[in-house]
Design a protein that fits this description.
This protein has 351 residues and is an alpha+beta fold. Helix content is 16%, strand content 40%. Residues 4-14 and 273-299 have low confidence and may be disordered.
Length: 351
């Protein structure tokens, strides 16, 4: 059942509501909703409109590790450390269906472009495909020999790509359920992988601090970036396909120009804490992962003051935009009312 959060204006701007670390987010362009999952075992759905409520969804018994909206935005999928997958209807009722087949933490969940199926990746070393509307498990892809951190459908839904702690990226044919190719160039755990919007190539990042781009037709390594100084935790293609955004434990985001094969921007701002963690309960002495806290970075007082001033100005801008949106809505309502009144007058005066 979804519980509404307090109507605090600051809640709308700063998205405070979880009671523990936030682990994952997703955005639905169609419904203009934002979903987040947390170590507090809950999901939250935020409506991107002024004065709208946020809703908390309770059902998982342990940390929520991944969330993904269906293409239409009318369904929301989540995976958890409790080994289950849930499909939610993101409304005030907060109804969900539980899917069980994994035997360990579910790390990744992703809908196919037609919304008819979704794929999950798990610490049980498998990738699983599920039917959305028949609400059932369909089949497993089981050639990885270590935890699988990420799995994604290709834009046309014919292929699946997966990234694993066995240091490989695997490409699968959904129809034949066969592994088409294994990419073994990474020197460490592969943390994240995704398809280019065209579906012709994939990009993966990992614990070896690198980002690699392969052609899925020829399986040739197209680009290899060694720009980060710590693990690459996530990446995202720009819808145009020309740029790739990478996120790293070195506290930076980098924007890569794929057309020219070069670094375009480095975005600083996050404070370093620890490197990408291996979840608790790992009982193998394989590749060691950095877990020592990094030295805190001391920031000059002038820079801190400047940043605080910028944040303050952004808050003012956010409030101003919200007020302008409300005024625009009022103006539109008044205009609509005037037009309706004019139509009534015309109907009365017409013989």
């Amino acid at each position: 059942m979804a519980a509404p959060c307090p109507e605090d204006p600051s809640l709308e701007r700063h998205f405070k509501g979880h009671r523990d670390a936030v682990t994952c987010v997703d955005f639905s362009l169609n419904t203009k909703q934002l979903a987040s999952g947390s170590m507090d075992s809950c999901l939250m759905v935020w409506h991107m409109k002024p004065q709208s409520r946020a809703y908390r969804f309770a059902g998982h018994k342990d940390a929520v590790t991944c969330v993904n909206f269906s293409p239409s935005g009318h369904l929301l999928a989540s995976g958890s450390r409790d080994k289950t997958v849930r499909i939610w209807i993101p409304n005030v009722k907060g109804e969900s269906t539980v899917f069980r087949a994994h035997t360990a933490t579910v790390r990744s969940i992703h809908f196919c472009s037609d919304g008819q199926s979704f794929v999950t990746a798990s610490d049980d070393k498998t990738v699983k495909v599920w039917s959305t509307h028949r609400q059932k498990f369909l089949f497993s892809l089981s050639q990885h020999i270590n935890w699988v951190r990420c799995a994604r459908f290709s834009p046309d839904g014919r292929l699946i790509v997966s990234a694993s702690d066995d240091k490989t990226v695997k490409l699968w044919d959904k129809t034949s359920r066969e592994c088409v190719h294994s990419y073994c160039e990474h020197g460490g755990f592969v943390t994240f992988v995704d398809f280019h919007p065209s579906g012709t190539c994939i990009a993966a990042g990992g614990m070896d601090n690198t980002v690699k781009v392969w052609d899925v037709r020829t399986h040739r390594l197209l680009q290899h970036y060694q720009l980060h100084s710590a693990a690459v935790n996530a990446l995202s293609f720009h819808p145009s396909g020309n740029y790739l955004l990478t996120a790293s434990s070195d506290s930076t985001l980098k924007i890569l120009d794929l057309m020219e094969g070069r670094l375009l921007y480095t975005l600083h701002g996050h404070q370093p804490d620890v490197d990408f963690p291996v979840p608790p309960g790992r009982g193998r002495s394989q590749e060691s992962v950095q877990s020592q806290p990094q030295e805190p970075i001391s920031m000059p007082q002038t820079l801190t003051s400047t940043l605080e001033h910028i944040v303050g100005q952004l808050d003012v801008l956010t409030q101003t935009v919200s007020i302008l949106e409300q005024r625009l809505t009022l103006t539109e309502d008044k205009l609509k009312q005037c037009l309706e009144n004019q139509q009534l007058i015309m109907q009365r005066t017409t013989p």
